[in-house]
Amino acid sequence: MNDELKPWSVTASRITYEDRWIRVRSDDCITADGIVVAPFHVLDYPDWINVIPVMPDGRVLLTREYRHGRGEIVLGLVAGSLEPGDSKTGDAAMAAAERELREETGYQASTFVKLLTSYPNAASHSNMVTSWLALGLSRAGEPSFDPGEKVELLFADLAAILGELQSGAVIMQSMHVAALYAAESWLRRQASEGLK
């Protein structure tokens, strides 16, 4: 038995579904041990971003919106997909974060801090998500939602939200939870460095 991990070999690949939001790639694979896995469906999404806007008083700006996958109104972060025009400005993920912050909240930020990049689900998704902290917020206008999108904004204490997540009083997308913990860690570090 070979204990060394190796990628699977792909013997055939075809697009079985595609629209503007998602592409489903169906691969026929063979593992390093010779086991055939066919078909294995991969969800090709564009890369995603999420943003944690921090108000001057320290509260974070969260969203509530209907999420059809769960059929529920869900608490979350400003979030979205990278679009083709985002890559024209250099860092496409940061451009997407700026755009989504403005569109969903009507705010702009003077500073964006990259908190982390992670895989939404490396088992079946090909994309990555980059989480940003948005600081130095100022009102830039009214939100401009995509068709079918309606977002409710609320301001919350970060420690209180993390406590509600730990107690189970609130459930959020796992990518958003990871970003909130990364934001809390970054803000705590900045505060302790400011005290030195």
From TrEMBL:
Residues 44-178 form the Nudix hydrolase domain. InterPro entries: NUDIX_hydrolase-like_dom_sf (IPR015797), NUDIX_hydrolase_dom (IPR000086). PROSITE patterns: NUDIX. It comes from the Bacteria. It holds the Pfam family NUDIX. It comes from Rhizobium laguerreae. SUPFAM superfamilies: Nudix (SSF55811). This is 8-oxo-dGTP pyrophosphatase MutT (NUDIX family).
